[in-house]
């Protein structure tokens, strides 16, 4: 009985993950052309979705070829989530609840992985949504502190009405540079515990990883996010030429438009290995400032013209293939789509410790703190140059403002705010207000006022 719905949509095994600003319609269609058998929409905020027609139009688009499709929502209000689900149920095959996002925005909004400790609320959300719509409700979660706790978590969601569970094999704290390796043992244990269809997520860089994950964990399908972004043909088991994938994607964007920021992000990920070479800085800058499809195509064509002779073997860097690969410091040539390999948490920690030691060295510290030093970032140097070009007002010393005085913090080169109470730039002013419990009306920073309001509210509740 648990598998009837899953059977009806063809038992899909290869899933494109829900990715904010990345799994839009054009990208989903590209992924489907190259092996994906089910796709998720980007995460949609349920409260905004039900109120804002413009948000709905810009963030939820589909077409007949875009099936099977799962729409993902985030939120913490059962009625709001149910209402949002009703608005899309005719255009999808299931509706997913995001219970896995570990980012700070999810913590502030109290959704995603920051609901995993409130099982009563989650049970109510799943059951309310299940009763409200005619399509199945699914959940995407992360592992908890132990295998046993993760198993109980999955069973609770299944009992509440979840019809398909996706388990990311990392905890809520494994994110950013501390992402680390996903634990498939948790996924395997949960798979044995529940009786509904289940997808695994984590450690997927190529089709071989997909097969290994299916065999080891026993799940019904495997979901890919980063692996899919750097190689949209990951489920096809090939490493296509980057410019072919990019141009095919751009053709789909012309048919199914999306914001240029989405397009730019996809192309940067597809070309990430090529852009790791300093010889392609010009192309990188063209992509960074591109404003339309023609600009994006221009980058693809330039890179194609530059690397196609190597790809066709017309130009050989070296007779020995192994030496050629060593010259690129890659297993595959950089013009082929391939996975992005993260630095391990241990290596990142060691790198940061080394960097901190260097920065605390007296000579290097003095260089970093000197606004005139070449160690300052390029962006800050440009800002300083603009400030230096500004004309000095005759009464600048009497009426300090952005065009005249610099922040009184000795190591800060930024111009001070003209109305700042403490003669600081906004960044330094914010730090001072947080440390000393102050307000700055000039910058609109009300740390003291808000803390007092919070304390008053807390005392009234008790």
TrEMBL record:
Annotated DUS-like FMN-binding domain residues: 16-272
Annotated region (Disordered), positions in chain: 352-380
Top-level EC class as recorded in UniProt: oxidoreductase
The cofactor required is: FMN
Q: Name one GO molecular function term.
A: tRNA dihydrouridine synthase activity
Q: Where is the composition biased (Basic and acidic residues)?
A: 352-372
Which reaction is this enzyme known to catalyze? 5,6-dihydrouridine(16) in tRNA + NAD(+) = uridine(16) in tRNA + NADH + H(+); 5,6-dihydrouridine(17) in tRNA + NADP(+) = uridine(17) in tRNA + NADPH + H(+); 5,6-dihydrouridine(16) in tRNA + NADP(+) = uridine(16) in tRNA + NADPH + H(+); 5,6-dihydrouridine(17) in tRNA + NAD(+) = uridine(17) in tRNA + NADH + H(+)
Annotated EC: 1.3.1.88
Q: Which domain of life is it from?
A: Eukaryota
SUPFAM superfamilies per record:
FMN-linked oxidoreductases
Question: Keywords in UniProt for this one?
Answer: Flavoprotein, FMN, NAD, NADP, Oxidoreductase, tRNA processing
For whether the record's keyword set contains Oxidoreductase, the answer is yes
Do you know which CDD domains this protein is assigned to? DUS_like_FMN
The cross-references to Pfam families, in alphabetical order and at most eight, read: Dus
Which PANTHER family does the entry mention?
Answer: TRNA-DIHYDROURIDINE SYNTHASE, TRNA-DIHYDROURIDINE(16_17) SYNTHASE [NAD(P)(+)]-LIKE
Assigned protein family: Belongs to the Dus family. Dus1 subfamily.
Question: What protein does this entry describe?
Answer: tRNA-dihydrouridine(16/17) synthase [NAD(P)(+)]
Give the species: Leptosia nina
Organism ancestry: Eukaryota, Metazoa, Ecdysozoa, Arthropoda, Hexapoda
């Amino acid at each position: 009985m648990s598998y009837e719905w899953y059977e009806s949509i063809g038992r899909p095994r290869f899933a494109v993950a829900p990715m904010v600003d990345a799994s839009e319609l054009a990208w989903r269609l590209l992924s489907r052309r190259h092996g994906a058998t089910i796709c998720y929409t980007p995460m949609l905020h349920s409260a905004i979705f039900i109120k804002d027609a413009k948000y709905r139009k810009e963030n939820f688009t589909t077409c007949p070829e875009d099936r099977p499709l799962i729409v993902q929502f985030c939120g913490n209000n059962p009625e709001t989530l149910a209402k949002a689900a009703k608005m899309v149920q005719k255009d999808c095959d299931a509706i997913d609840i995001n219970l896995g996002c570990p980012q700070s925005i999810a913590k502030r909004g109290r959704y995603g992985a920051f609901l995993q400790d409130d099982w009563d609320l989650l049970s109510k959300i799943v059951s309310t949504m299940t009763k409200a719509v005619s399509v199945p409700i699914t959940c995407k979660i992360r592992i908890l502190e132990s295998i046993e706790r993760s198993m109980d978590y999955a069973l609770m969601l299944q009992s509440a009405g979840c019809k398909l569970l996706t388990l990311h094999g990392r905890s809520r704290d494994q994110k950013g540079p501390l992402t680390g390796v996903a634990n498939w043992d948790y996924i395997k244990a949960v798979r044995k515990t529940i009786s509904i269809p289940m997808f695994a997520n984590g450690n997927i860089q190529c089709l071989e990883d997909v097969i290994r994950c299916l065999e080891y964990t026993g799940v019904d399908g495997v979901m890919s996010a980063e692996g899919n972004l750097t190689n949209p043909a990951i489920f096809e088991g090939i490493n296509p030429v980057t410019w072919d994938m990019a141009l095919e994607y751009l053709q789909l964007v012309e048919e199914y438009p999306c914001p240029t920021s989405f397009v730019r992000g996809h192309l940067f990920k597809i070309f990430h290995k090529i852009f790791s070479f300093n010889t392609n800085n010009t192309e990188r800058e063209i992509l960074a400032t591109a404003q339309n499809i023609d600009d994006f195509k221009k980058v693809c064509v330039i890179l194609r013209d530059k690397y196609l002779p190597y790809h066709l073997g017309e130009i050989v860097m070296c007779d020995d293939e192994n030496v050629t690969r060593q010259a690129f410091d890659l297993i595959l040539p950089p013009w082929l789509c391939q996975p992005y390999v993260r630095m391990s948490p241990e290596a990142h920690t060691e790198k940061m410790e080394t960097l901190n030691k260097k920065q605390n060295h007296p000579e290097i510290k003095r260089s970093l703190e000197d606004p005139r030093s070449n160690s300052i970032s390029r962006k800050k140097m440009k800002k300083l140059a603009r400030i230096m070009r500004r004309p000095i007002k005759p009464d600048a010393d009497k009426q300090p403002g952005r065009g005249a005085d610099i922040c009184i913090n000795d190591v800060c080169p930024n111009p001070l705010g003209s109305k700042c109470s403490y003669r600081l730039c906004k960044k330094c002013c914010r730090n001072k207000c947080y440390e000393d419990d102050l307000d700055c009306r000039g910058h609109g920073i009300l740390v003291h006022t808000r803390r007092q309001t919070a304390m008053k509210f807390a005392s009234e509740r008790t």
